[in-house]
């Protein structure tokens, strides 16, 4: 197949190329010989490198926030990178609720992985397939293509690895409630949003058909959201806006029959946010006519009705038009199987150490929603810490000895710092003050028992990281940087002192920095909880939300599309075609 | 459900409202009492009107080009309008091939019918359902909802009509070739384009998987288009552009294995166009490496291979990755059933008269792709024409007598005018010259036999209208205008003289005006055939194509979206995510 390019094509392609190309063209105009020489030198160099040292095989499973952030920051020239994912694109998940009602279009929040990666030196190999088994014993993953039609064989293949990065994400958690998988929509993949959008429109069209009782119309226009977390609440708000701003005009005969219910098992919605935000959200929803049912637990979903219970009432069954299930995440089967193989069969979620490594599993890393960091407790290592700090082996620690290893302890056990902050202590030394209830002199020496007593409550501050895009992206970025300096840090380790060994850890452990979280509440109002417990609610936060989400887009294409989608929504409203 | 609107909402909604609202606000500021009085007077008036005269029930089946054009131009205040269609939106079909490869997004070429109609006085009722039976005897249509989930009953209902407008469109024609429905994609609905786009991407992803032979990769990247008409050719061109401009960069390892084939049963592709265009297209496709197989007929499509024959060769079977079937249109089952009821069982397509009325069927009209106008032949009515023209009953026609009825004859039988044009005659009188091979004096009189002889070949010029959006839209517009002046024209008929009756026809018969046709050939080149056999090929026609298609959009929303899609494609290319 030959390709001809017209003038316009060429112009268009030139625009799309990176700016360095234009620099090359300038150099080329000055001295084409020089450029040719440069090009030659480069390819020679590449050739030599690949011949002399075989690159280590790095396999990445998944192209979500963690996987993509890892790949974007990775120096791909150092490794033979292979990516396996059933999705050949990165999905900007925080905008999923906006897509359900057409505020933003699906294509505006996806970017092909090949496009993100195709300018990287060395490149990556991408296989659109699902990993169905991880085999750490033989260092390989078994994969199966989902698009294996019109071909012989089964579409299965194995990929060997030296390093494996597991970033497979999670699946929706149904708590084994009967009928949920069959009758509810989830809100995790781009296809979910398309199904929800079609389903909302179908409910309106169905409720508008002739020869229906008002009861049937009401039933069809009852939208139920199970789960009062950020996703469920944002979807409820989006749906309310869609109905009031767009559909009410087009379906005037049924618009007053619409009901939106949010069912939450806890006392309040948005419990992960500050109390002020929760209260504001509940009040706003009440004003908007969104029915928030707290302390209700869904026990069954049939094709016609949703059944729930509460402490104060018997089982009630409510007919519905559509249910969206958004109650948190569960572990994927392939991860559960892998956990059995690596001795984590009794855990709910795959655990890694603070360097995102899966314990007892050479070269395997896990990050994002599919794993959780199991922070080592201070009390487990207390004797080792004491031994490391006690340089002169005197059996007691001087304040100076403690100060010498303080930074390493705080880095290795971040709960120490959190504990100090929570108790409003300025210094590590204050800990011992607290324990002994009196002033500590610089000359004071502590024995192991006193040391233990002082640190006894520190581990209560160990915090699990939330399953958010922000955490996954930071983990991906962190791990990529570790991989990039793998060789350098082998010789010059940069991490804290090893407490139960000698020398230093190769890398700093992963530390999460929280930049805040948004909860869009509809009607151009957003609640924002920023670091330092700074809370902002209203239209100004909505503009902050617009700017942050536009700036966080993975490419200029999606940024252009998302912003023009917002403009389009503002001028022309949302589309209500059933497609 | 109550709706609250923030400042931004209100601003946004105000922009979307029609400008008259702002005038009302101005009046309101001047004299709020006056406005209230006006509002009261208006609703009283409405009430009286609806009480005194029951509006006739007008049922429209279908929301394609014909149905939508009819609805947009209809004075809905005169009728009780009900629309039945399985699609709640109008689809701008000429851009379907652009959507298959992501040059334009699906939502950019659809507009909800309710949105198109919601500002119309009186409004319309829309039922999202499929009409499965037309019952002209009882003047009702039977419909069935396609979205009848989670409801009791069957979702069936009947709609009574006084006037019925059938604009149901057509279905793809498979010529009963085995395996086509199961294995091929069509290109008629918006869902088809989404499936094709996903399928193209799946072929590329599948061909890129590890452990495949080159033969398997080639097979997966063989794209077959059956049918060398405008749709098939445009799709082939779009696909070629998509591959060469976007996918070649992202799939460098397999890009040279891509093959696009166009299979055409005739001697050439684009046979409905001028020979210059056909030749240019065939040459361009050859340069682009698109394999055009003319004189090949497809006899079977299995899940792995497509089988075809030609006069010169035995059956050949070619493996493929994807087949798009685009060989013309067939009649829908509901129309075939209706044809049986109205005595057209032996016809292939539903026939109407020149006023788009279904013969022997009171109040039923058919237009667009589901029907064809059966032009009355001059020779069938020759005696009646003679009798009407022969005012003095002399048994002979003078030239003056002929001239008196000439306009009516030409309007009733447009083939007469076409015949004169084709023979390069300036005047009707020349016809008689031609027949008698000598000059005709003004005083000459013709008897019936001479009259018949002169008009003998005229009916050879009867032309079937093509099944295009242009024809359907003009028919819808024409019929709406007829409906709008139904009462006026009942008293003052505007049509030509009735030949086989007395008086005049109520309306002018439908006349199609051809504004030209485009054939986009890829690489920013388009062939345009404009009225007067004016042919233009190349980049300038592409810009004409852009302007015409942008201006023909049904709403400002779709116009804005289509133009911004073109810009987005030009700057960022097409998206290759498998969604």
TrEMBL record, chains A, B:
It is an enzyme of class 1 (oxidoreductase). It holds the Pfam family NDH2_C. Its main location: mitochondrion. GO terms for cellular component: mitochondrial inner membrane; mitochondrion; peroxisome. Residues 377-412 form the EF-hand domain. Its EC number is 1.6.5.9. InterPro entries: EF-hand-dom_pair (IPR011992), EF_Hand_1_Ca_BS (IPR018247), EF_hand_dom (IPR002048), FAD/NAD-bd_sf (IPR036188), FAD/NAD-binding_dom (IPR023753), NDH-2 (IPR045024), NDH2-like_C (IPR054585). It is a peripheral membrane protein. The keyword NADP applies. It catalyses: a quinone + NADH + H(+) = a quinol + NAD(+); a ubiquinone + NADH + H(+) = a ubiquinol + NAD(+). GO terms for molecular function: calcium ion binding; NADH dehydrogenase (quinone) (non-electrogenic) activity; oxidoreductase activity. It is found in: Mitochondrion inner membrane; Peroxisome. Keywords: Calcium, FAD, Flavoprotein, Membrane, Metal-binding, Mitochondrion, Mitochondrion inner membrane, NAD, NADP, Oxidoreductase, Peroxisome, Transit peptide. Belongs to the NADH dehydrogenase family. This is NADH:ubiquinone reductase (non-electrogenic).
């Amino acid at each position: 197949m030959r390709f001809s390019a017209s003038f316009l094509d060429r112009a268009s392609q030139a625009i799309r190329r990176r700016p360095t190309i234009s620099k090359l063209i300038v150099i080329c105009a000055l001295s084409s010989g020089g450029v040719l020489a440069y090009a030659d030198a480069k390819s020679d160099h590449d050739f030599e490198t690949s011949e002399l040292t075989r690159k280590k095989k790095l396999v990445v499973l998944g192209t979500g926030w963690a996987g993509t952030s890892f790949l974007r920051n990775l120096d791909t020239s150092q490794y033979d990178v292979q990516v396996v994912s059933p999705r050949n694109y990165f999905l900007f998940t925080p905008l999923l609720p906006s897509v359900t009602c057409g505020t933003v279009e699906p294509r505006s929040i996806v970017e092909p992985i090949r496009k993100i990666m195709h300018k990287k030196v060395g490149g990556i190999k991408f296989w659109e397939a699902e990993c169905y088994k991880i085999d750490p014993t033989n260092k390989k993953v078994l994969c199966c293509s989902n698009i294996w039609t019109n071909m012989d064989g089964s579409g299965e293949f194995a990929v060997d690895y030296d390093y494996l990065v597991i970033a497979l994400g999670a699946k929706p958690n149904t708590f084994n409630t009967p009928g949920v998988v069959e009758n509810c929509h989830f809100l995790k993949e781009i296809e979910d949003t398309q199904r929800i959008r079609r389903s909302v429109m179908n409910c309106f069209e169905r409720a508008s058909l002739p020869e229906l009782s008002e009861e049937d119309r009401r039933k069809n226009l009852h939208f139920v959201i199970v789960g009062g977390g950020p996703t469920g609440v944002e979807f409820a708000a989006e749906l309310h806006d869609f109905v009031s701003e767009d559909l009410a005009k087009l379906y005037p005969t049924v618009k007053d029959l619409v009901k939106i219910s949010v069912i939450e098992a806890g006392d309040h919605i948005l419990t992960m946010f500050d109390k002020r935000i929760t209260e504001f959200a509940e009040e706003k929803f009440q004003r908007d006519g969104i029915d928030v049912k707290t302390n209700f637990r869904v026990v069954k979903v049939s094709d016609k009705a949703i059944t729930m219970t509460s402490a104060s009432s018997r089982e009630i069954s409510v007919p519905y038009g559509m249910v969206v299930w958004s109650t948190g995440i569960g572990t994927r089967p392939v991860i559960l199987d892998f956990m059995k193989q690596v001795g984590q069969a009794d855990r709910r979620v795959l655990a890694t150490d603070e360097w995102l490594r899966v314990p007892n599993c050479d070269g395997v890393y896990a990050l994002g929603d599919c794993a959780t960091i199991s922070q080592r407790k201070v009390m487990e290592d207390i004797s080792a810490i004491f031994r490391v700090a006690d340089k002169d082996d005197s059996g007691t620690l001087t304040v100076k000895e403690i100060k010498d290893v303080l930074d390493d302890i705080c880095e290795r056990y971040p709960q120490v710092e959190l504990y100090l902050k929570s108790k409003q202590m300025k210094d590590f030394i204050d800990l011992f003050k607290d324990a002994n209830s009196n002033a500590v002199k610089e000359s004071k020496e502590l024995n192991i028992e006193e040391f233990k007593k002082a640190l006894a409550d520190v581990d209560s501050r160990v915090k699990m990281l939330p399953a958010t895009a922000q955490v996954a992206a930071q983990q991906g970025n962190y791990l990529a940087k570790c991989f990039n300096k793998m060789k350098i840090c082998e010789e010059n380790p940069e991490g804290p002192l090893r407490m139960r060994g000698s020398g230093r850890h190769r890398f700093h452990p992963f530390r999460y920095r929280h930049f805040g979280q948004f909860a869009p509440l509809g009607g151009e109002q957003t609640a924002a909880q920023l670091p330092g417990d700074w809370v902002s609610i209203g239209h100004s936060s909505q503009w902050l939300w617009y700017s942050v989400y536009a700036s966080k887009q993975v490419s200029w294409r999606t940024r252009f599309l998302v912003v023009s989608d917002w403009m389009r929504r503002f001028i022309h409203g949302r589309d209500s075609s059933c497609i």
